Amino acid sequence: LRRGTLPLDLTGRNVLISAGGTREAIDPVRFIGNHSSGRQGYALAATAVARGANVTLISANVGFSGPAGVDVRPVTSALELRAAMLHERDKADIVVMAAAVADFRPDTAAVNKIKKTGDTPTPIALVENPDILLELSRHRGGVSPQNQIVVGFAAETDNVVENGRAKLARKGCDLLVVNQVGQGRAFGTTENQASVLAVDGTVTEIEHAPKEDVADRIWDLVVERLPA
Ligand code: CTP
Ligand code: CA
């Protein structure tokens, strides 16, 4: 990382980042969750601050404290994360969906703890969560909605670029940061590696590196696309 020498090229820009992984309540003591640590999202927040941005971080169940100078707003579920993102997006010049959002949530969360009965357990009915990135991409906000930049993330186990291309097109964001996962990669580790796909057709490979360095490279790609 260009430690200590980061350019202040995000000065005056309002950045909105989601990080972590959502939890969908099954009952008061249980949830459906995922392995996202929040480290890449937090690294993006810290690096954006270092480059001069005003950063709001919508943080879903992250087990460590936020970087200095960042406005951290904790949320739990996908619906809470969505409400927070939609509330903040009108102030943002750049929106980054680094959080792992549960695709499904239990249709209803039991009011009381579910008990064993000795019978076959009742299946948990699931409903699909709204696609927050799709909503953010479709209805841009900010001071200048046509210039707002929206960045998505994707974790793929195979056919990374091919699957990423299809996902970028489907989501309608400007950049999609695709991580290859599986075999101990990405989740919970302090290092990462990514292919960044842009709506203009370019692919940028980011070498295996600490998540701060990966974040710095992602900001380079965002800065290139900012209006003057
Ligand atoms: N995402 C979102 N809302 C959802 C699901 C995902 O905003 N309900 C965002 C994630 O934060 C990420 C991007 O969409 O930035 C891609 O997430 P991913 O899980 O890879 O995509 P999905 O559309 O859910 O497709 P898949 O079936 O591969 O999980
Ligand atoms: Ca998903």
From TrEMBL:
Q: One MF term from GO for this chain?
A: ligase activity
What binding details are noted for the cofactor? Binds 1 FMN per subunit.
The UniProt keywords, alphabetically, are:
Decarboxylase, Flavoprotein, FMN, Ligase, Lyase, Magnesium, Metal-binding, Multifunctional enzyme
Residues holding CTP: 103, 113, 130-133, 153, 167, 171
Residue span, DNA/pantothenate metabolism flavoprotein C-terminal domain = 10-224
Note down the stretches annotated as region Phosphopantothenate--cysteine ligase.
15-228
Q: Does the keyword Metal-binding apply?
A: yes
Cofactor(s) annotated in UniProt: Mg(2+); FMN
Reactions catalysed according to its record: (R)-4'-phosphopantothenate + L-cysteine + CTP = N-[(R)-4-phosphopantothenoyl]-L-cysteine + CMP + diphosphate + H(+); N-[(R)-4-phosphopantothenoyl]-L-cysteine + H(+) = (R)-4'-phosphopantetheine + CO2
Which pathway features in its UniProt record?
Cofactor biosynthesis; coenzyme A biosynthesis; CoA from (R)-pantothenate: step 3/5; Cofactor biosynthesis; coenzyme A biosynthesis; CoA from (R)-pantothenate: step 2/5
Q: What is its EC number?
A: 4.1.1.36, 6.3.2.5
User: Domain of life here?
Assistant: Bacteria
Role summary: Catalyzes two sequential steps in the biosynthesis of coenzyme A. In the first step cysteine is conjugated to 4'-phosphopantothenate to form 4-phosphopantothenoylcysteine. In the second step the latter compound is decarboxylated to form 4'-phosphopantotheine. Catalyzes two steps in the biosynthesis of coenzyme A. In the first step cysteine is conjugated to 4'-phosphopantothenate to form 4-phosphopantothenoylcysteine, in the latter compound is decarboxylated to form 4'-phosphopantotheine.
The entry's family comment says: In the N-terminal section; belongs to the HFCD (homo-oligomeric flavin containing Cys decarboxylase) superfamily.
Name of this chain's protein: Coenzyme A biosynthesis bifunctional protein CoaBC
Gene responsible for this protein:
coaBC
